[in-house]
């Protein structure tokens, strides 16, 4: 174990600091498609009874009108975060009629591209901006890809932790600078080691054959309706032929916050010839927000993002530049189709230990090929993580994946133990043991279990997924929310509808001018 990690562990293990680790915050965003009883994409509008997707803080839509997104508050105890997510699911099921929430990450059999409905947010300028941005995504990447769902895990370390470490380590600069530097270091380590999460939690080894729309691919045929790779863990996170050419040159390597925000700002301001050719309007209608590499910074696809809560009308990048990094968002987690919410407490406990390891361990800047190696290790594991003898690259050398995974888990163990000690539980260490078992026996991984269940029931991907969706619907419907909770959600829905109506009634100014000033806002940021 590194000297730095040892020192930090000793410091946090002191009685006066131990309770700090109870103050980490956890938030979860879970996306899921609405589907019909036959397991087809629901073509119905976002149910009004769920509230307004534009203004509801917990129930919104992601890309498509049919792609729900459930958002929990950020809470210290992940058990409470999951309880919050559970309630949102139970409420949603009281408003879905005969529809289901699709259980895995990869989509159900989809209609023709033009029949996938883009999420609509009403007539306010901000609502229209969100809609045009999605039209731009359809134009740039196709709608099919935008129907993939995932779980985003938001995590922050206690604000009081940073000044403590900063002082001990003699960092020169402000508390805010230290905090951002530490989060960027966490992100670098996450890039180094996130392949491990794909092995342990990847749950998308197969997909509906229609998903690829007849494109060429390297997948194998499992049955008439299903494509797969025998050793894949997460086809969702593989390239699947969808590499964005525009984003190909965009690899912020996270050496510091300003180089990260600069690279995104540049991408939002740099024209990209094929998009310029299309233009922003067609037949007088907006088709994309601009003709640049990115329309907005959130268009950049990455498996982890530095974040800061934004003020009304503020852009994510403005918030980061003005006030530094507040938390990170892990974006590479598949939805586990065997779990009603797609994630459970043991996974959350392990993620906390893993992220704490990334935060406290040495994190040198990326050397020459290291950024590329991190990407290729990640892609190797998503496509063939369960292949016996799989080799990855570490410091220029080939290394056995299982060997490296075991080593990493051994290094994470003291962090799991420290978290357990601070909470007075054993759940982090138990969660870690469960991951070690998966490394020793690949058949215990969710990806292997998906393929095994499909084989055992002789089901295609779509049949298996619909079956799981029905099982989960029954789980949520069997035990409705207490009347008081149900009433609280009903009130939130009504309030959000009223807020959207008010926004639309009081809207001033022309949409074109609004887009112009929105674009200009990113150019005005000065580091």
How would you characterize this protein structure?
It is a single chain. Helix 7 (195-201) packs parallel to helix 12, helix 11 packs across helix 13 and helix 11 (345-360) crosses helix 14. Strands 1, 2, 3, 4, 5, 11 and 12 form a 7-stranded antiparallel β-sheet that branches. A 3-stranded antiparallel β-sheet has the order 6-8-7, with no helix packed on it. The protein has helices spanning 3-13, 15-18, 78-93, 125-141, 161-169, 175-193, 195-201, 257-269, 273-278, 316-323, 345-360, 370-384, 401-423, 427-440, 446-457, 461-478, 483-505, 511-523; strands at residues 25-35, 59-61, 67-71, 100-101, 151-156, 206-208, 220-223, 226-228, 281-282, 285-286, 304-307, 327-333, 391-394, 397-400. The chain is 46% helix and 11% strand. The protein has 18 helices and 14 strands. It has a single domain, classed as Creatine Kinase, Chain A, domain 2 (2-Layer Sandwich), CATH 3.30.590. By secondary structure, it is an alpha+beta fold. The chain is globular and about 60 Å long.
Topology:
Blueprint lengths: L2 H11 L1 H4 L6 E11 L23 E3 L5 E5 L6 H16 L6 E2 L23 H17 L9 E6 L4 H9 L5 H19 L1 H7 L4 E3 L11 E4 L2 E3 L28 H13 L3 H6 L2 E2 L2 E2 L17 E4 L8 H8 L3 E7 L11 H16 L9 H15 L6 E4 L2 E4 H23 L3 H14 L5 H12 L3 H18 L4 H23 L5 H13 L4
Antiparallel strand pairs: 1-3, 1-4, 1-5, 2-3, 5-12, 6-8, 7-8, 9-10, 11-12, 13-14
